[in-house]
Write a structure and sequence with these properties.
- The protein is α/β, with parallel strands linked by helices.
- The two termini are 22 Å apart.
- A 5-stranded mixed sheet has the order 2-1-3-4-5, with helices on both faces.
- It is built from 8 helices and 5 strands.
- Strand 1, helix 3 and strand 2 form a beta-alpha-beta unit.
- The longest helix is centred in the C-terminal third of the chain and has 19 residues.
């Protein structure tokens, strides 16, 4: 049950599972009682998925994996905070996971809210404001490149999040630098169910 796979092999396994999901041939692996028993005292996930909390983006389903396969961290708009960084650093340093996937998706409500805040100059109230403020740099970066559609901003935000993880965590940066981990940005299309690579940091 060792997860000593390369970043490339980890991504290939996720891609294969996503292909099964897209074509309607999901196998739902590692979801039975024996797998449950096997994992009581240990876990060796082969990838981390840091994704948007959107209900349509259930990581284990869209990549057709099961218990113990992926370590999942989710926030609206895959916004980074200290708890996210701590969770990802745990996965990299303790679980030795070879791949971090930043998973965004089209028609993202959090990115849309940030775009609207930039367009109108009005920020939402409560803690939603904090989410929007953290996504706003990605929206502005898109606008500087004349990318004005929400789904173009989603891709840019995934790319920017990959960069921010490396800038914010020395542990993740070092893991990428010594080739033990790669960090990739992925954009998911809700209608067709396909996950597409949009950014790579490290050797995949």
């Amino acid at each position: 049950m060792s997860n000593r796979v390369s970043p490339y092999d980890a991504w290939q396994r996720l891609l294969d599972g996503n292909e099964r999901f897209v074509s309607g041939d999901s196998m739902h692996p590692n979801q039975n009682a024996s797998r449950r028993s096997e994992l009581v005292n240990t876990q060796s996930p082969f990838a981390v998925i840091f994704g948007c909390a959107d209900s349509r983006l259930a990581a284990e389903i869209i990549f057709d994996v099961g218990l113990g396969d992926v370590f999942v961290v989710r926030t609206a708009g895959h916004v980074i905070d200290d708890a996210v960084l701590g969770s990802l650093e745990y996965a990299v340093s303790v679980l030795h996971v070879p791949l971090i996937v930043v998973l965004g998706h089209d028609n993202c409500g959090a990115v849309t809210a940030a775009k609207e805040a930039v367009d109108t100059g009005e920020l939402p109230s409560g803690h939603i404001r904090d989410l929007v403020e953290r996504i706003t740099p990605s929206v502005l970066s898109s606008l500087r490149e004349d990318k004005t559609e929400v789904n173009e901003m989603v891709v840019e935000h995934a790319k920017q999040t990959v960069r921010r993880l490396l800038d914010s965590s020395r542990m993740i940066y070092d893991a990428v630098d010594n080739y033990s981990t790669a960090v990739i940005g992925v954009a998911y299309r809700l209608e067709e169910g396909r996950a597409q690579l949009v950014s790579t940091s490290g050797v995949l």
